[in-house]
Write a structure and sequence with these properties.
The chain is mostly helical and 156 residues long. The protein is built from 6 helices and 3 strands. Keywords: DNA-binding, Transcription, Transcription regulation.
């Protein structure tokens, strides 16, 4: 069990790095030089919504200081529009500018191409669903070790 667990940790790390490399390659293909792969993924996760910086952090995508730094850079480079909340003067709302939405759409198209290629690579929807359930369960375990005890179900 220990070997499988450690191999899974290494695979999760490698998958994350490889995803960042895919995004980096797409940015290079598009000749976007003022945006890094992490910032592009922030734009992708914001999409066409308006969120607070706190919501980005709460969703678990990024560490607080990284979010603040990257949001600042995204605003400076014209990818995000940042406005102070009318209801809570301490928080800021962010949404993608036209430039940011364009990046979101490019990444969305990239991921759509990947989805279209997956059956030819031997992936089925069931395989991805199973992998997602296992990874979600591992995430819950890491978030609160000892609290994940029930057998895995479709709701996992």
């Amino acid at each position: 069990m220990k070997t499988s667990y450690l191999q899974t940790i290494q695979l999760v790390e490698r998958l994350h790095r490889q995803c960042l490399e895919l995004v980096k390659a797409e940015l290079e293909r598009l000749a976007i030089r003022d945006l890094n792969n992490v910032q592009a993924l922030i734009l992708f996760n914001i999409g066409e919504e308006e969120l607070t910086v706190g919501e980005l952090t709460q969703r678990g995508y990024y560490l607080g200081s990284n979010v603040s730094y990257n949001v600042k850079k995204l605003v400076e480079n014209g990818y995000l529009i940042q406005q102070r909340s009318l209801h809570d003067r301490r928080s800021f709302h962010v949404k993608a500018s036209e430039r940011g939405v364009a990046v979101y759409r490019h990444l969305s198209a990239l991921f759509e191409r990947h989805v279209a290629e997956m059956p030819d690579a031997g992936f089925s929807p069931e395989m991805l669903n199973d992998a997602g359930r296992v990874l979600a369960r591992l995430l819950r375990f890491w978030s609160a070790p000892g609290s994940v005890r029930a057998p895995m179900t479709d709701a996992a």
